[in-house]
Design the sequence.
């Protein structure tokens, strides 16, 4: 019963936040609503016994990514409101609604009609509750937490992927520095007329 | 399929995820501010994350949580680079939105 | 040693590449020396391969070297490979040998030219192409060289392309050669169709073992002959060669006398096993076209005044002799004459180049005379070349021409007769050239006909203006008289006496001016009559034109030219002349007719000939024929000496205008092509534009319309693209759902 209540609260937080993100005129508000959604997702993770991921979700998403968003918003001074009443591209909104509805319908039909097929046999290669590899570290299976399970898999079966992510992050940092550096040459002038012309 | 009240089944989480994903997609298509579009992408990623974890629990497989871990890393990298690009663009053309950046047309 | 054959074309190719990259940097004269050294290297390689070939037995004198497969296409496969046999190596020897000398000569001749290094670049490329032509072991490789030499010929004819006529001459050569190339190509296709190969050895092996239908062989032979006619300037495709003289003289010597134009002869000889299977009338045709061209060109050469034009028509004529030999089945004689001709014609061209060089680029022989005093080396070597081409024993031309005439006699006495007349004409026009250039009076400073005519015109105009002035004075006097008479009518008293006196005075004056005016008019008319009846100014072979009456009106031309002194050329130019002169003297020794043992060339070439040619008659008759040939030559020389050395007889009776215009053949072709031909071309152009281009352009326009519409999809808006992605994702999802349902 408690889990149901937690789930309901989390779902409310998530969906409310999501609506807030897409409906707020001000990007700062969007970012704050995003934080709300991310917290909701973290709660869902706890509900799903993924405690480590819940922590990471809060630290990485709420703590780093959203802060980065806010930084950029503040840095560039683009916190002005976006006029949501105007849609420059004809037919974009109806199409977007249709697509979103179709996506929702498709995913729902997967869950509702063919969802049963997803519940196949339990995993044998990477079981979540029986901690086989942790034995080597001297801990008893009963004391195994999901952090241990994740960690042991991450540094054994998935170590190559893990190292690759390290490289990826390094590249991302270097790329970001390179991109955000101020250009040495004069800034190319680009008038509004050009922009209007470009939109046409 | 049961809708028992005592504990939410995996299907509930999947449906939540579906709604969140659709909302993210809608936002991505409707909003013009590149930063908000990015946030919508994050919403969609989170929807997928919920699916991963829920199905991982259903199948008692650690793979679901591992996938989420990697998605988090990739999302972080993506945001870093994406925001850098947005910074560069907006520095050149203050106040630009996604529709203004249309030089790559045929 | 035979393995080194690839070096022969590799040297000029290397030279070409080096000059392409660094020719401009090397500059003059290093670029020339580089090209010359590499040509010499090619010659040395040829000699080495030749020695290697000599070391083999006669039956084994054939060697193939395949470098790589060029065109592998199913059943059709072409290698880049070289065929070394006595024929190809003979060609290589004289192409590289004469080529080296001409390269050396060019260093002197092209001195000071802006495009010095580019000239040698083309020369090396030409040598490479020519060597590929002769060494290629299949028809396609030969064709590659064939086109290569054509292209180089085009580049070099229009080398000084800033002048319009030079550029036109280059284009003319190129276009005319296309007709011949068409023949070669179709012959190649036919060979492939008949034998499935275009490799010479396989072709001849196929003919040897399986035989060939006479009709096919005839067609191939005829088409090859068309190709040979184009390259070797035979009637009716000879048109381009005289115009090709627009190029620098070393080019005329190398390409348009010694090597490229002989490639037709080479091709016919190379294909002799095919020719042997063709109908006999093909040979008759070739022989008659050859001898006809020889006679035709020789008659034109008689009336040319441009020193290089004479040699150009002479080349056409001599090539006609070679085709006469082929038509008579005497391939050895053709190759023999080709070699000796390469020596003496290159010598003559280089000599003429030396003359032109020494005479300030004046090419008109009427302005020469007695040049042996100024350029003795050029004169002596040129005279040797003259004796060789005129067929005077024991110079090389005598032996080769005699052999051809003997072979022609064997085929048909009529051919021999025409050939003999041509030999006489050859001796005549060459003697004319030598006498006009190196003997007689030095005529450079003479007043030229156009100057004399202009001076007479000035004099007539002056007399006319004097007459006009006298007429005006007379008219004035008459009006003064009329005025005085009018005054007399009005006058009275004392005035009347004065008026009568005035009238008398006026009458006297008027009478005097009337006489003056009529005298001046008469003398002007007389002068004009005299000028109109003046004999046309002749060459001034014996004495300068008599110009004492008009010496003041001649202008500065002759006086200016009196300051000029012709000079001998530098050593780079006369050394090749001397070497070639030596070759022209002794060149006949490679195939002496006295006994079978001294017919070196004939024995040497025997392996490549399907059916050796044997002259059917005995030594005695051969001797009589030789006597006739020598006599014909001497008669030609004698007539020329009488007319151009002694001044007996009128040269204008010989140099008929129709001959000078080349029997109006060139202008007729031009008129036809410009008139009905042009309309035909324009019709074809319209059909091309409307029909073929229309279809192509229609497709293009359709594509453009469609793409113009589709282009709008790509509007540059990120969110539209996102819609596209989303639609795709939804459709994929729908697909998977349907599949899952179905499954």
Sequence:
């Amino acid at each position: 019963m408690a889990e149901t209540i937690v789930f309901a609260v989390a779902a409310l937080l998530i969906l409310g936040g999501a609506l807030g993100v897409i409906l707020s005129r001000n990007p700062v508000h969007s970012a704050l609503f995003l934080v709300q959604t991310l917290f909701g997702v973290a709660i869902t993770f706890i509900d799903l016994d993924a405690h480590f991921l819940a922590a990471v979700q809060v630290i990485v998403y709420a703590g780093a990514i959203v802060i980065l968003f806010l930084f950029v918003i503040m840095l560039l001074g683009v916190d002005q409101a976006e006029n949501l009443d105007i849609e420059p591209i004809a037919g974009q909104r109806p199409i977007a609604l249709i697509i979103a509805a179709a996506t929702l319908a498709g995913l729902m039909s997967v869950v509702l009609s063919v969802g049963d097929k997803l519940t196949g046999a339990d995993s044998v290669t990477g079981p979540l509750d029986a901690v086989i590899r942790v034995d080597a570290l001297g801990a008893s299976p009963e004391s195994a937490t999901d952090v241990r399970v994740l960690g042991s898999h991450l540094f054994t079966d998935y170590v190559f992927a893990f190292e690759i992510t390290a490289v990826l992050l390094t590249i991302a940092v270097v790329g970001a520095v390179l991109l955000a550096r101020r250009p040495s040459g004069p800034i190319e002038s680009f008038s509004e007329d050009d922009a209007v012309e470009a939109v046409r | 399929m049961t809708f028992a009240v005592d504990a939410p089944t995996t299907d509930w989480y999947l449906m939540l995820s579906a709604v969140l994903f659709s909302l993210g997609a809608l936002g991505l298509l409707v909003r013009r501010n590149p930063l908000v579009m990015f946030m919508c992408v994050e919403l969609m990623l989170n929807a997928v994350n919920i699916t991963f974890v829920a199905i991982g629990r259903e199948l008692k497989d650690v793979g679901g949580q591992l996938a989420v871990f990697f998605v988090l890393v990739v999302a972080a990298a993506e945001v870093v680079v994406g925001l850098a690009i947005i910074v560069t663009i907006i520095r050149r053309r203050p106040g630009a939105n996604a529709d203004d950046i249309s030089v790559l047309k045929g | 040693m035979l393995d080194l054959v690839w070096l022969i074309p590799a040297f000029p190719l290397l030279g070409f590449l080096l000059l392409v990259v660094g020719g401009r940097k090397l500059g003059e004269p290093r670029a020339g020396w580089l090209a010359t050294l590499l040509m010499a290297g090619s010659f040395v390689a040829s000699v080495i391969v030749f020695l290697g070939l000599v070391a083999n037995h006669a039956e084994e004198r054939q060697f193939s070297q395949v470098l790589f497969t060029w065109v592998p296409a199913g059943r059709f496969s072409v290698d880049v490979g070289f065929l070394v046999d006595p024929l190809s190596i003979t060609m290589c020897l004289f192409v590289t040998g004469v080529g080296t000398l001409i390269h050396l000569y060019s260093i002197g001749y092209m001195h000071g030219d802006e495009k010095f290094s580019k000239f040698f670049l083309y020369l090396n490329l030409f040598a490479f192409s020519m060597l590929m032509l002769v060494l290629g072991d299949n028809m396609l490789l030969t064709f590659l060289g064939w086109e290569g030499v054509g292209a180089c010929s085009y580049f070099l004819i229009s080398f000084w392309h800033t002048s319009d006529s030079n550029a036109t001459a280059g284009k003319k050569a190129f276009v005319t050669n296309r007709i011949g190339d068409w023949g070669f190509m179709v012959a190649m296709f036919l060979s492939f169709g008949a034998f499935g190969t275009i490799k010479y050895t396989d072709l001849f092996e196929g003919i040897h073992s399986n035989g060939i239908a006479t009709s096919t062989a005839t067609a191939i032979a005829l088409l090859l002959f068309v190709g040979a006619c184009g390259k070797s300037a035979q009637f009716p495709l000879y048109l381009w060669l005289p115009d090709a003289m627009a190029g620098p003289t070393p080019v005329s010597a190398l390409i348009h006398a010694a090597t490229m134009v002989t490639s037709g002869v080479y091709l016919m000889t190379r294909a002799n096993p095919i020719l042997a299977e063709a109908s006999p009338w093909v040979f008759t045709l070739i022989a008659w076209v050859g001898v006809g061209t020889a006679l035709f060109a020789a008659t034109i050469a008689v009336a040319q005044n441009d020193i290089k034009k004479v040699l150009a028509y002479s080349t056409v004529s001599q090539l006609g002799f070679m085709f006469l030999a082929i038509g008579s089945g005497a391939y050895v004689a053709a190759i023999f004459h080709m070699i000796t001709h390469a020596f003496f014609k290159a010598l003559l061209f280089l000599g003429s180049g030396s003359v032109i060089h020494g005479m300030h680029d004046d090419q008109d022989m009427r302005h020469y005379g007695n040049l042996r005093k100024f350029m003795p080396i050029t004169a002596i070597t040129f005279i040797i070349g003259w004796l060789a081409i005129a067929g005077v024993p024991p110079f090389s031309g005598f032996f080769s021409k005699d052999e051809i005439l003997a072979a022609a006699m064997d085929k048909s006495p009529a051919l021999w007769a025409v050939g003999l007349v041509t030999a006489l004409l050859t001796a005549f026009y060459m003697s004319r050239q030598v006498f006009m250039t190196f003997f007689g009076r030095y005529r450079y400073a003479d007043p030229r006909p156009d100057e004399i005519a202009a001076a007479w015109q000035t004099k007539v105009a002056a007399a006319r203006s004097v007459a006009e002035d006298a007429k005006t004075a007379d008219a004035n006097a008459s009006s003064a008289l009329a005025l005085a008479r009018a005054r007399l009518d009005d006058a009275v008293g004392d005035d009347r006496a004065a008026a009568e006196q005035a009238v008398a005075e006026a009458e006297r004056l008027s009478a005097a001016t009337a006489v003056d005016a009529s005298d001046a008019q008469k003398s002007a008319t007389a002068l004009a009559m005299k000028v109109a009846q003046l004999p046309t100014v002749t060459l001034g072979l014996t004495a300068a034109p008599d110009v004492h009456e008009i010496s003041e009106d001649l202008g500065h031309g002759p006086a200016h030219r009196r300051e000029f002194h012709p000079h001998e050329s530098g050593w780079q130019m006369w050394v090749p002349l001397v070497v070639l002169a030596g070759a022209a003297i002794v060149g006949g020794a490679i195939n002496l007719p006295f006994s079978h043992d001294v017919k070196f060339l004939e024995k040497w070439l025997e392996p490549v000939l399907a059916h050796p040619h044997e002259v059917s008659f005995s030594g005695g008759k051969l001797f009589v024929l030789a006597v006739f040939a020598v006599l014909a030559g001497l008669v030609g020389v004698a007539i020329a000496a009488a007319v151009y050395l002694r001044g007996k007889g009128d040269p204008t009776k010989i140099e008929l205008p129709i001959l000078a215009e080349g029997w109006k053949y060139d202008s007729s072709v031009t008129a036809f092509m410009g008139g009905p031909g042009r309309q035909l071309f324009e019709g074809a152009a319209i059909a091309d534009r409307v029909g073929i281009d229309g279809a192509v352009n229609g497709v293009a326009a359709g594509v453009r319309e469609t793409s113009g519409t589709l282009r709008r999809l790509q509007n540059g808006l990120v969110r539209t693209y996102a819609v596209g992605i989303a639609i795709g994702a939804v459709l994929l999802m729908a697909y998977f759902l349907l599949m899952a349902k179905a499954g």
Q: What stands out?
A: The helical segments of chain B are 10-30, 34-58, 63-92. DSSP finds three helices and no strands in chain B. The interface with chain C takes residues 25, 28-29, 32, 98-99, 101-106 of chain B (CB under 8 Å).
